[in-house]
Amino acid sequence: MRKDILVAVAIVVALIAAAVANMTPRPLGLDAPAGVFSAGRAMIDNRVIAKVPHPVGSPANYAVRNYLTGRMSELGLSPQVQRVDAFQERAGKEPLVIGGVVENIIGVLPGKDRNAPAVALMAHYDSVPGSPGAADDAVGVAAGLEIMRILKAEGTPARDVVLLLTDGEEAGLLGATGFFQSHPMARHIGFVINMEARGGGGTANMFETAAANGAVIDMFRKASTSPVSSSLTVYLYKQLPNDTDFTVPRKAGIAGLNYAFIARQFDYHSPVSTPENLSQGSLQHMGDQVLATAREAAFAPALPGKAPDKVYANTLGSYLLAYPPLAGWGVLALALALVALGVWRARQADAFAWADVAKGAGAALYLLLTTATLFMLARRVTGAGFGFYEQAKLLANVHLWELALLVVGIGAALYAAAAVGRGRMRLAAAGLALLAGLLCTAFSGWNLIGLGVGGAGAVVALLTFGRPAGVAGTWTGVLALAFLAALALQVMAPTAAFLIAWPLAFAALAGAISAMGTWRPVAVPVIVALLAALALQWVLSFAHGVFIGIDLVEIQALFVWLAALLLWPLIQAESGEIRPRTVALIVLLVGFALVGLVRVISPWSARHPQPAIVAYVVQGATGQAKRFSLAPNPPDWARAALKADGGHIVKDEPPIGWRASPGSTLSAWAKPVNPTPPAVMLNRVIDGSLEVKIVAPPGARAMTLELRPTGKLTNATVNGRPAKILTEPGQWTRVHWQGAPEGVAIGFRAKGPGVIDTRYATITDRWPVDAKPLAKMPDKVSGNAISGSTIVTGEQRFTW
Hints:
- With 800 residues, the protein is of the alpha+beta class.
- It is built from 21 helices and 24 strands.
- The longest helix is centred in the middle third of the chain and has 27 residues, at 355-381.
C-alpha cells in the first residue's frame, strides 16, 4: 500500500477517534431515574439562575440568592446566608485591592459523624456584568443542587456534606475568601469539589488538585466512570495566571478536585451564555463526574490523605492510567530499549547509517521551530489582536481556524520530512523558515520572537538538509531528540513528562517492529500506520484541549512534532523524489488559504454577535460627559452610539478603573447630564489615624478608588483590616469595591502633615435618564460587560 494513503488514513482515523473521545454524553431528561444525575432536572434551576445577568451587588443577584435559599430549604439543607466583606491584594507597580460585600449561601446535609472532616460541593452563583452566566457558573450551582438531592436520597453519609454557593467569584474570589477566612464552618471542611465553566460546552475536565494528590487521584479513578483528566493539565494550570474559587481552599492546604468544561469559548463571559445555548451534554458530564466523586467522598470511611503526586492521563476511551513519577523512568527505559532493538534490526538489514541520526535530530528541531513560526504567522494573518475581546473573531469562527492550523501543521511536517529525505533542499527550507519569521513582522509590526524563531529554523536547515538521508537513521534521530526532551521533563516536571514519553514509546514500538522503517514484510507499514493512528488520536485530543484553552498557537508546534514522531517513516521522502515536496507546499498553501478565509469572512451572527461596550462617562463635579467605546474594533452600531450627540470620535484614555489595550478606547463628546457623584471624604479616626472613605451614590453597584500619597504612610487598612498598600510615596494604589452601598474606608497613619491625591469612578448599570437613549442593537451585535452603564468619575486632593 502506498505510504501517502496510509498517512491519510491514519490522520483521518485519528481525527475521528479524537472527536468521539471528546463527545459529551446524552443528557438525561426529567424522566430519568431518581438515583442518577439528570441534566433535564438541573436545567430547571439553570434557567432561573441564568435568566438575566446578575453580578455581585445587583438586584438580580439578590433575586438569585433568594431563589437558591428557597431551593436549598426544599432539599432540607437548612441554608444560611453569610454576609461578609472580603478583599484580596495583588502586588505590582500599582498595588490592587479587589473587594466587596458578598453573600454566600451555605447548606448542610448532616452525616453520621458530625465531627469528621466535611465534604464541600462549591460553585459560585454570581455572573459577570452583561452575561447571564448559564455556564459560568449556573452550571455548577444547578449541578450542586441536583447532586445534593441524590446524596440525600441515598441515606445518611459518613460525614457532613456542605453545599457552598459563593458570591463574588467573578469580582475576585471574594465569596470563597470570605468563607474560608472567617466562617466557623470553614475549619470543618476536609475536602472540596469545585465546579466551574469557561465556555458553553465540552467534556468536564478535572483540571486541578491540591498538592500531594496521590491518594486523591486513587479515589478519583476508583469513583469515576468516564473521567477526563491528566497530571499535565494540573501542571499547566499552575503555570497560568488563572484562578477559581478552588484556589482559596487549595492555598489553605485543603484537598479536593476542580472541574470545568472549556469548549465553545465564545460564550465565556458573553451575553450569549444563555440556557438555550448551553450544552446540556456538558452539564450531564459535569454532573455524572462530580456525583461519582462526591458520593465516594461522602460515604467513604475516611477522606483521602496526602500522598506523593501521581502521573495520570486518559489513554483509550475513558480509562485513566496512573502511576508514581518514578515509574516514568521505566517508560523511558522501555522506549530506549525498543529504539535500540529497531536500530539493531535495521543494521542487520544493512539499512542504517549513523550519520543520518544527526540529520533526523536536525529535521525534528527544524520542524519544531518552523512550525511554531508558521503558526505565529498564521495567527497574525487572521488580523485578530491579542486579548479577551480581540480574539472574539477567532472564537466565533473557531472550527475554521482550528482546521486551518491543522492543515498548516500537516504541511510543515510533510515539508520537513521531504527536505531531509530527498536532500538538496537546504536553501529552500531555510528560506521558508526565515520568510515566515519576516512575515510575522510584516503582519503585526516588529516581532523579534517570530524573527528569532524563524531565523533559528533557517540555521538548523542550513546545517541539516544536504545529502539525502535514509529512513532508519533519520527516524532514530527524530526519536533521539524526543527522548532527550522527555528525559529533561522527567527530571524537571515528572508529572508532565508522559506527554512526550507515551508517544515516544508508541513510536519506538513501531520502530522495533519495522526495523526503523525498513519495511521487510508488506504488512509492516500497515501495522506502523495503525500504531500511529492509535497514539495520534491521543495527541490530537491534547492538542485540541490546549488550542481551546490557550491563545498561544505556537504551542501547537509541540503536537505537530509529537505527531511526526509517529508518522515519520510514512512521510519521509525517498532520495530524489520531487512529489513529496510539491505535496507539502500545496498543503501549506491550502492551510494559509484557510487562514485567509478566517481573516476575510465575517463571523458575526445572532449566535456569535460582535462584542460592543458603550458607556456614558460623566465628570462628577461638572456633569461634562463623553460616550466611550471600551471594546476593541467596535461595530458600526457602537460608532453610531458614540456620535449620537454630535461629537467626533477620537482615541482616548480609558476611564478610571477600566483597563484596555493601547489605542483601543474611543470616545466622543456627549450631552452634559446631572450626575450623582460618590461621597469621598478624609476622616480622622479616634485613635489618631486617618481614613479616606468613599460611599457610592444610590444605585451604583461598583466603585474604584485610586490613592497616591506624597509622603510615606504606615499601618494601612481596608475597612479596618491590615493591607500592604500606600507604602511608596508617589505610587498609585487602586481599590476596586463592589456590592457595598455603605462604602469602603482606606485607613493609614502619617507622621506630620501630608497630601493624598484620589481619583474615583462609580458604575451604575443603567444609562443616564436625561441622556439620549441608545439605539436598538442589531442581532449581530451584543452589549458585553458594562455596556449601557453610567460611569461617574472625579478626583480630589486631601491634606492634613
